[in-house]
Write a structure and sequence with these properties.
Mean pLDDT: 89
Largest sheet: 7 strands, mixed
Shape: globular
CATH class of one domain: Alpha Beta
Strand content: 25-35%
CATH topology of one domain: Beta Polymerase, domain 2
Number of strands: 9
Helix content: 25-40%
Structural class: alpha+beta
Low-confidence stretches: 167-183
Length: 183
């Protein structure tokens, strides 16, 4: 599990190494919401592919040496001895303008330029709300995905697809939130 201080420490570590990373996944949703809404097993980060080696070296120096998943060029997940995990999503392009992630099937996923969010009272770069929704498509939603999308919609009014408007067990537990169809 990672807490807010862990996230900020990793971001600082990467900035010090010259890496332009922006927060994705559950922590990215919480950054857009403005506060931590649930526990997080890992920290998802988008970063320019040409900075991947610098990120790996900086993380290794901080103890992130265990490779949990090597799906490069799509993703690389590392963990430290305390069980904290960082999942890197390299993209072609710059941190300033966004970039394209090469997917396992050869297609590309576009991450637009980062926006700002807040973790632990500090402004950080993160993935925008519409892209967060797109990242949550293509697989059966889990309870944490429903949780994240409900909070993201409530804070940003981002449109949600049908699978995130479901109610009942495993579905949205905040049925009072008005949903719009995704375009």
């Amino acid at each position: 599990m990672l807490n807010e201080d862990d996230v900020l420490d990793v971001l600082d570590l990467l900035v010090d190494a010259g890496v332009s990373a922006w927060v994705d996944g559950g922590w990215g949703v919480d950054a857009l919401v403005g506060h931590t809404t649930r526990p997080h097993d890992d920290l998802d980060l988008v970063l320019p592919r040409h900075q991947l080696d610098a990120a790996r070296q900086a993380l290794a120096a901080a103890g992130f040496t265990t490779v949990l998943r090597d799906l490069l060029p799509t993703a690389l997940a590392l963990a430290d001895g305390a069980g904290r995990a960082v999942d890197l999503h390299p993209v072609t392009g710059s941190g300033r303008d966004g970039g394209d992630q090469l997917l396992p099937d050869g297609q590309r996923f576009r991450y637009p330029a980062p926006v700002t969010g807040t973790i632990g009272g500090r402004t950080i770069p993160c993935v925008d709300a519409a892209t967060q929704v797109r990242c949550h498509l293509g697989y059966p939603p889990r309870d944490k995905d429903h949780h994240d999308m409900a909070h993201l919609h409530a804070r940003t009014a981002v449109a949600l697809p049908a699978e995130y408007r479901a109610s009942g067990p495993g579905g949205n537990t905040q049925r009072d939130i008005p949903y719009r169809d995704i375009a």
